[in-house]
Amino acid sequence: MGANTGIEWTSSTWNPLTGCTKISPGCTNCYAERMSERLRLMGQRNYANGFALTLHESALETPLRWKKPQRVFVNSMSDLFHQGVPISFIRQVFDVMRRADWHQYQILTKRADRLEALAPQIDWPPHVWMGVSVENQDYTVRIDQLRRTPAAVKFLSVEPLLGPLTDLNLAGIDWVIVGGESGPGCRPMRRAWVVGVRDECRRQGVPFFFKQWGGANKKKAGRELDGRTYDEMPAAYSVRSVALPVVS
């Protein structure tokens, strides 16, 4: 848990819980699982349980100690809406985000069904961005579930993109991130799939962020699409005072 990250669309990570379980094809080569095991072997206290779901009460107030405004990816090493996380703990996380309101927070889940079910029981601050992962056409239902929440900023993480997304309805969606899979056993992403999402974003007026092509050597593959990079951010980004460079 720290204030530096190599994730292109955020600047900090905050992990009041760690560990997860796999629920869909996007989870197959989970980077967080690999990293958790590495950290466990290094003796990192918060990863003593490896990738087993673990709540960290001691980490709850970390953002309050970060005085400089940041974009904070919440639970990069887990899923806040995992079925094993009590609603009381989720509310505690939201309470900290409400109190440390000089930051922007980005939450990402694959459990869009539980997100939708619990959303009415949560007080949603305007500086919290809520996203869902959509790896192929079979999981576009998550977009509908996200749309039905009261989150002020709603976004999609189309990473790893494992197939084409057709008839993509982006009504009510404020931002779309696309990326290919990297690391051991990574599955390829076709250019046509990326272009299809980008063109829908253009057609529907939604900011598009292209994170990476991925592959075994993601740095070599880069993040250019048709000779340029796409670093578009949601309109809400310009409203607050968070002024941070994009991590390259």
Strand content: 15-25%
Number of strands: 9
Question: What does the overall shape look like?
Answer: globular
Order of helices and strands: EEHEEHEHEHEEHEH
What is the SS-derived class? alpha/beta
Give the helix level as a range of percent.
Answer: 10-25%
Please state how the strands of the largest beta sheet are arranged side by side.
1-4-5-6-7-8-9
- The CA-CA distance between the termini, in Å, is 20 Å
Please give the domain count: 1
Specify the number of helices. 6
Mean pLDDT equals 93
> What's the main sheet like?
7 strands, parallel
- Rg, Cα atoms, Å: 17 Å
In terms of per-residue confidence, which ranges show pLDDT below 50 for 5 or more consecutive residues?
A: 239-248
Describe this structure in words.
The chain has one domain. Helices cover 23% and strands 16% of the residues. It contains six helices and nine strands. The chain has a seven-stranded parallel β-sheet with strand order 1-4-5-6-7-8-9. α3 packs parallel to α4.
Topology:
Layout: E1 12-14, E2 17-18, H1 31-41, E3 54-55, E4 71-74, H2 87-99, E5 104-109, H3 112-118, E6 128-133, H4 141-147, E7 153-158, E8 175-179, H5 191-204, E9 208-212, H6 218-221
Parallel strand pairs: 1-4, 4-5, 5-6, 6-7, 7-8, 8-9
Antiparallel strand pairs: 2-3
Helix pairs in contact: 3-4
